[in-house]
Fold each of these.
Amino acid sequence: MFAPAGDRRPLFVYGTLMFPAVLTVLLARVPRMEPVAVSAWRAACLLQRPYPGLVPDPGARTCGQLLLGLDDAEVAILDAFEGPAYEVGPLVLTDGRAAFAYLWRDLTQVSTQLWDPQVFAERHLVDYARRCAHWRARFAAGRS
């Protein structure tokens, strides 16, 4: 799903992957991160889900983090974690740099509300990180 090995652009993250607790569970480390933003994309609440989806919105600006230095194994983990509900697509950051992001596919599941990382951190992060740990254990078991 992600960029071919020879085309390793940074990954723009705008939701749960901005949280070091989630990255640590999934990747066993926190990659180098830089605060960045994109225009014309919105981190939208999704129906019945604690995580967001990035969807086109001409008037929006979304802040997030740029993950740098991901290796092929980490990309494979993130691709599997995000799954088929997302597609990887290129975008241009507000500073002009190119990046990839996981873009939400099913617009029928998108709310008009903006996803709030602070609300997620307060209400869902601990349980979400625990669920990520269970997913990661199953993923590792399936690869051995």
Amino acid sequence: MNTHEIRVTGDGSKTIFLPELNETYHSSNGAVQESRHIFIQNGLELVKKKGAIRILEVGFGTGLNALLSASWAEMNNQRIQYIGIEAKPLSPELCFKLDYPRHIDQNAEKIYDALIRCDWEMDNQLSTHFSIQKREVKIQDFAAVENVDLIYFDAFGPRVQSEMWDIAILEKMYQSLNAGGALVTYCAQGQFKRNLKAVGFQVEILPGPPGKREMTRATKI
């Protein structure tokens, strides 16, 4: 059983450290700024669509990426349908100790409370513009979904979970995306990028968040 330690990161926001894996859920340089940079600024903000944007997150974790997306949806008057998959859900009590809403906006506390407390395996309409389905499942057992516009690939890194970054998983991601859809992730490992290209993605290497040189965006042509 993993022991969860809460740590304060460089931007003042918190993350979780797992001593057994020697791994944190977010960058030690800043949890919130990392998520904003990778998934919002280099992902969500580039999606232009009149209808609802469909997002698939691999590694729901603390719910931070979903919270930032829900906040963005309200500010931009844009509907988002969100699917978050997680093999080992965190307890609500642990998530609330991270105190993410105070780093987002004045409406974030209500949204985060609903986000963390809402039922798994069900469609939950959390606000006017944001709905979510949380699924407790391993990515290996997750069936590809259709018509996804954006994938947040936020699994633990290849050092810890190499099987998450294999071609078989990336093929499933490719199948889920609409043409022109993209996968964004903090990882810029060489083998991972080669696997993306082998599956058929067009790969871009972008500047990473503070403390990390690069990140990856892969588009389905």
Amino acid sequence: MLIIVLGVSMIPVVGIVGGIGSGKSAAALAMQALGGHLIVADALGHEALRQPEIRDQLVKRWGPGILNAAGEADRRRIGHIVFADERELHALEALVFPFIDLRIREEIELANAGTTAKFVILDAAILFETGWDRHCSKVVFIDSPRKLRLARVAQSRGWDEAELARRESRQLPIAEKQARSNAAIVNTDDFGKLGKAVKDTLVRLQIIC
């Protein structure tokens, strides 16, 4: 039975935003444990780069040096190009964002067609920048102190403060993300507290009972 009507989800869709390193993925997993169908936009970005037609367009623009030994588009090499030149970043976005948006809509439809998901979670760092918030019923902002975020990205990605600032400059200011969200959850690496805050927030937003 088709449950998507004119692209509108019949079950709630919760978007997750926050600063880089805020712990959006941890919050998303806590929501998933409460019955949510999880969509991770970054994973769909990986999937986009595996599409032969997209890969070929990237090679045409930047040359075969962006491919790894297996002939796949290398995200790290591409990252060095696009984060150094805003025009190249826009060129990449023009290729991959339509694919990601299509896959988001497909995943929402899949969740609606099933019988187990109570709601959908859309974990997307650039939810507002891309307009993907149009798919969401509510948006939750994950808040975390900058010092803690820096420690996380230094450990997980090897970034220093300058790199974090450079990456964040490509996104909306954190204050604007929070202002445009329906609720905020503080994440300080205590998963027990995070899980409780996530549940309380979803109840308050009437996503779950």
Amino acid sequence: MLYAHALVILGNKADAEDAAEEAIYKLLVRRLPFRDDEHVKAWLIRVVINESFMMLRKRKKLSGDELTEENAGSVEFAYPEQSEIFDAVNCLDVKYRSVLLLYYCDNMSVYETAKKLGISKTAVTTRLQRARLLLKEELERRNFNG
């Protein structure tokens, strides 16, 4: 789950593994107790998302580009083992990919997704609606019938 979140944001297997490992490391050295397993899961997701964006900022800083929400989603995914749908999802802007991943892959509610991303519930529903439409258009463009 952590790797998937990082891969969607970073678009690079090695960086995604590093971000997931860093989140696990931070869990192991954390001294404060968690309320329950759901709190652990939520905390780990937030940490891996933050770590992934820190890595993106570092990458953009090294390349001289400024990181914005718009260009954060422009990371290339070019692994042959990826499915057609995964490729299509990865063509979406990161703000759409992140809500799709949390809502569909992690089975989070709109409220939980909003809380994790620090945006409003309205923003989540709007992004989900736009993401579905954009994904449909991308799959149709690719003549994907499945």
